[in-house]
Amino acid sequence: MGGDVNSATKVLADPTAYADDERLHASLADLRAHEPVAWVDQAPYRPFWAITKHADIMDIERANDLWLSEPRPVLVTAEADDLARAQLEAGFGLRTLIHMDDPHHRKVRAIGADWFRPKAMRDLKIRVDELAKRYVDKMRDIGGECDFVTEIAVNFPLYVILSLLGLPEEDFSRMHMLTQEMFGGDDDEYKRGTTPEEQMAVLTDFFNYFGALTASRRANPTDDLASAIANGLVDGELMSDVDTLSYYVIVASAGHDTTKDAISGGLHALIENPGELARLQADPGLMPTAVEEMIRWTTPVKEFMRTAAEDTTVRGVPIAKGESVYLAYVSGNRDEDVFDDPFRFDVGRDPNKHLSFGYGVHFCLGAALARMEMNSIFTELLPRLESIELAGEPELAATTFVGGLKHLPIRCSVR
Ligand code: HEM
């Protein structure tokens, strides 16, 4: 693109650009090289500063007293932002962990945290391995062509998260639809209706489902994450309805679409780099670094935002109190100053200080779970994979927030 910074900034505020990897990466490379702190003023979004260097993203996330999640944790249109705010003021809306700042954030995070620690992961591993086997068996049974995203990758992490929450498997299709409608909100294929009101109806459905769940887990607590959330105390009191329901929403949504994107994008990268696939098959001990590389490569969460609590500067650029920064994880993960040959997919990459799980106090609560799921499915699949190739064009979702492959048509032989 040769330093065309003006058009490069526009890309970040254009959902369709996220469905075109080459265009997105070329623009981000331009910004890193020429304007790493860039003002983006592009309707229908409110203006923001795009932060594209790895070191700046880390500095901002580390300084969580100066850079707040409230009131603008992610990039949404001005209209959607106003509506969400009005609904919260009316006592009905979404305020998840990612919307909160300390000290409240820390207390709310602690309620679910034990369910993501190593001991809980060890307890869950048998179930995760069993589900991984079920889906690799399904690939074998399909025998030939399938859409790896819709038939395999989407179901596996959803089942894992439903198991952790303690929800019944028959609720699978309902949760699947709702999380896609919520997280893939910019993409026509997932959209429910066209107005922000219709989009907010998705939230109402979520709240109705989880409202009933809370009542039942308070009446009859069981040994699962849903019970921990329903009965969790902040300063000795049960969480508010908004905080409780939002907790389920973040766990159900963040827990599966992100992982689906990393698994399907990871498999795509292995297909595109057969040498790396063969290397990993020959040396399964590389699995932990391969999983990290897939997570860096795909960067399922494209961005989070923070807002300045005081006048400050980033890389010498003055930023006024109340202005927001867009943390471009996709860019940080290809930063030439941090990654050796960043556009090379390397299953043995070490060190790999990617930002896909964010950094600091909001660091992804489910990172260990996502890593375990990916390890489990690729450890099951690769020794059984006799051949694999693309059977059509892979298609990326057009969304500024959480996204990856919508479709990955493959032809494979699995024993
Ligand atoms: C490859 C898969 C995943 C990716 C790329 C990912 C990415 C992220 C990112 C970037 C953040 C924000 C970090 C920040 O602001 O610094 C986050 C937060 C979070 N993630 Fe994940 N995530 C993944 C899987 C999961 C899973 C499986 C769960 C399980 C429930 C999960 C639950 C959460 C929660 C609850 C938060 C909010 C944490 C907080 O604000 O304190 N994520 N994730």
UniProtKB/TrEMBL annotation:
Any matching Pfam family: p450
Pathway: Steroid metabolism; cholesterol degradation
Coiled coil: none
Gene3D superfamilies, alphabetized: Cytochrome P450
Presence of keyword Kinase: no
Keywords per UniProt: Cholesterol metabolism, Heme, Iron, Lipid degradation, Lipid metabolism, Metal-binding, Monooxygenase, Oxidoreductase, Steroid metabolism, Sterol metabolism
UniProt cofactor(s): heme
GO biological process terms, semicolon-separated: cholesterol catabolic process
Sequence intervals crossing the membrane: none
Superkingdom in the source lineage: Bacteria
UniProt-listed SUPFAM superfamilies: Cytochrome P450
InterPro entries linked to this entry: Cyt_P450, Cyt_P450_B, Cyt_P450_CS, Cyt_P450_sf
Protein's UniProt name: Steroid C26-monooxygenase
Organism: Mycolicibacterium chubuense (strain NBB4)
